[in-house]
Amino acid sequence: MNSSALPLFSPELACPASECMRYTNVNFLLSRPSLRVSCLVKKGGDVGASNGDGKNSNASVSLQSMHSHKDESFERKRRMHVPLQKTDFVRTLLIDNYDSYTYNVYQELSVINGVPPVVIRNDEWTWEELCHHLYEENAFDNIVISPGPGSPACPEDIGICLQVLQKCWDVPVLGVCLGHQALGYVHGAQVVHASEPIHGRLSEVEHNGCQLFRDIPSGRNYGFKVVRYHSLVIDSESLPKELIPTAWTSPTSTLPFHEAQKVESIFEDPVLVKVGNGSSNHFDYGNTRSKKVLMGIRHSSRPHYGVQFHPESVATCYGSQIFKNFREITEDYWLRFRSSFKEKRAYSNGKLKSFVIKIYSLYFKEVRSSMSAENNAVDQLKKLVHAERDLEYNKTEMKHLEMLNMVNTHHATTGDKCLKLKWRKFSHLAGQVGGAKNIFCELFGHETENTFWLDSSSTEKERARFSFMGGKGGRLWKQLTFRLSHQSDGSSKGGGYLSLEDSQGSAETIFLKEGFLDFLNKELLSYRYDENEYEGLPFDFHGGYVGYIGYDLKVECGVKSNRHKSKTPDACFFFADNLVVVDHKNDDVYILGIHEENSSVTQWLDDTEEKLLSLDGSVKMASGKRDSHYSTLSSNKTGFSAEKSREQYIEDVKECQNYIKDGESYELCLTTQMKKPIKELNSLGLYLHLRERNPAPVSYTHLTP
Q1: What is the largest CA-CA distance in the chain?
Q2: DSSP string, 74-95
Q3: What phi, psi does 614 have (nearest 5°)?
Q4: Catalytic-residue membership of 418
Q5: Could you tell me which residue ranges the Chorismate-utilising enzyme C-terminal domain spans (predicted)?
Q6: Which of 18, 306, 511, 698 has its Cα between 20 and 30 A from that of 399?
C-alpha cells in the first residue's frame, strides 16, 4: 500500500450486511476465565515482519508519514493481500492493562468471536514479539485494549498500547476506557480530569450512527444506557482532525444501576447544558463537542475505535452488540482490502475446532502446571500449533467438543468413594423451637469448638432463605488447615503445609507441592453419589467441605502474594457429614447425614431429632437466661482505642480520593483497627451480639479451638 491509495481507505465505508454467522459453541471454555493460554492459530498466506523498532515516536505523527516511511517492511505491505474469507471465528489479541474487567471482555469475545482471545499483560511482550505474532505469524485479526487504572500518559500504566495504536495502522483496534483514552492521547488529544469521578453509574448515550454503533438506538429515553468507571476523559475541544467523535453522554444525570432500573428514563441534570431533545441520530459536532462528555471516537482513516464506557458490563445495554459490530468491522475490513479470496485459510473451521478440543482437553487435565513461569503462553501455544498443524477434523472429535463440558461438570459422580445420604424433614418446626439461633445454641452451642454456622439472620423480602449448621460428629468429619510456604509467590506457587485431623483426633501434616486448590479439586473428584437420594431437598448444599480461603491463596492462581502476611491459616475447612438446615421461608427444619456404604448415620439422625423435638415448650423459659449469658463479653469498662488519630484518618481519606480522581483506582478500601482489652472472649456470644445488632442475609461463623 502506498500514499496514493490512502484516500480510498475508510473503515466507515458502506459494507454489505454480513452473513449469518455460526458461532462455535465455546460456553464450556468460559468456566475458567483466568486461563491465559488461548488459541493462537496461524493463518495461511504470505506474511512477514514489520519494521517495529521498539521505540516511541511522536504521538501526533500523521498516518501519511507512517505509510510512506522508507524502512517499512515489504512483508508488512503484503499482509493486505493475504486471502481471507468470512469464517466462524475471529482471533483477537486482548491486551490487559491490569484491570478487573479484562476477563469480562474475555468472556464476551469468546462467545462472539467463536474462539477465546489471547490475553497478554501490557508489559508482557516487547514490541518485536508483538510484531512477530501479528505480522510474521499472522496470528490475530484484531486487537482489543482493555480498561485499566492510571493514565495513558504514564508508560507504566499503558505499556505497549501506545505503540500498538501508533504503529498498527493496518489492524482493527478497539480501546475500552483506558484504551479509548490512549487512542485520543496518542494522536495528540488531551486527557484531563472529569468534572467529577464517575464509577459504577449509568448514563444515557447518543451516537452518530457509525458502524460500531450499528443497530443500537441513540438519544435520550431511547434505552442506550451504559456503565461508566472513569475519572479522566478526553477533552473534546482538543481532538485532532484525525479523530472523529462518535458518542456523547445525553444531558441527563447519572444513576446507580439499581436506581436506573426503577425509572423509565434518567432525570435531567441541571448542571449540564441541554442541547436539543437528544432524540436524533444526527449531531451538530461544533455545538455538542464541548457540552457533553465524550463517550466514543474513531480514527478517520484507520480501523481504530474507542469507547469510554464499559460495553462488557452486565448493566450496559447493547454491550454485546458493540463487540459484534467490532467483529463485523474486522471481517469487512480484511475482506475489502485483501485482493484475493480464492485460497483457503491454513486452518479450516474443522481444524480449528479440533485444535480447540485438544488445547482445552489438555487444560482440564493439567491446568495447574500451565500456570508455571517456565510454561508461558507463547511457548505453549507455539508447541501446540506445530503439534496440531496436520490435525484433521472428524465427527468423533466434534461430538467430544459438544460433550466436553458435560463430562467435566459431572465428573464428581464417577469417583472411587461412594457417599450415601439420608435425611429427614420437620415441617413448620423452626418457629416452634425459637428459630435458627436457638437450634444452633442447643445443638452446638455448648461445645462451640469445630462448629460452623452459615447463617441468614436477615430474611425479609426473601433476601435469604436457608441457614446451615453443623459440628464435629460422624466418621467422615475432618478438618483441613493449610498454610502457604514462604517460597510461594506469583511466579512459583511454592506449595504449602496441610494439617489434617479426623473425627478420632488423629492428626498429620503433609507438604502439598501443587498447593491447596489442586488438593481440594482432586479430593472432590474422588467422590461419587446417587443423585436420586437428593430429590426433594429445596437447597443445593447437602454437606461436604465448609470453610474459608484466605486472600493470600491467590498465589495459586498466578497472582503475586500480598506484602503483608496473615497470621491466620490461608485456608481452613471442615468436612461436614452431619448437617442441620433451617428453611426460613417455609419454617421447616431438615437434618442430613452423609455416610459411606458400609456405615450408618441412623443413630445421629435419631439423637438430633429427639433434641429438636424436646426444644418445643422449653425455649421461651430459658431464652432470657441464655441471651444474657452469650451477650456478656466482659466487665472491663475500658473503651476502644483507634490505631490512627482522627486527623491522620481524614488525611488518608483525602489521599484515597486523590487516587480515585487521578484514575488510579475506581474503589479503595481504607481500613483501620480499633482495639479493646477484655478479660475473656466468648466467640459465640460475640457473634450473637453482632447478629442481633447488624443482621445480614448471608454470614459465616467458623468456631475453632
Answers
A1: 95
A2: HHHHHGGGS-----S---EEEE
A3: -75, -15
A4: no
A5: 646-700
A6: 18
Per the residue annotation, which of 12, 108, 312, 397 is the catalytic one? 312
pLDDT in tens, 655-669: 999 999 998 888 888
The whole-angstrom separation of Cα 548 and Cα 572 is 6
Q: Is residue 310 among the annotated active site residues?
A: yes
What's the pTM value of the predicted model, to 2 decimals? 0.59
Whether 161 is catalytic: no
Catalytic residue among 310, 542, 584, 595: 310
- Domain boundary assignment for the chain: 47-52+71-345, 351-409, 417-621+699-703
Could you tell me which residues come within 8 angstroms of residue 636 by beta carbon, excluding any fewer than 6 positions away? Answer: 676, 677, 678, 679
Banded pLDDT at 297 (limits 50, 70, 90) = very high
CA dihedral of 433, 438, 440, 441, whole degrees rounded to 10: -130
Q: What is the mean pLDDT of residues 570-590?
A: 94
Multiple choice CATH, 47-52+71-345, 3.40.50.970, 3.20.20.140, 3.40.50.880, 3.30.930.10: 3.40.50.880
Superfamily of the domain at 417-621+699-703: Anthranilate synthase (3.60.120.10)
pLDDT of residue 455: 87
Kindly report, residue by residue over 455-483, the tens digit of the pLDDT. 887 776 667 889 999 988 788 999 999 99
The C-alpha cell that represents 446 in the structure block? 455448648
Q: Is the pLDDT of residue 1 over 60?
A: no
**Rg for the chain (alpha carbons), in Å?**
30
Of the residues 39, 131, 168, 177, only one is catalytic, namely 177
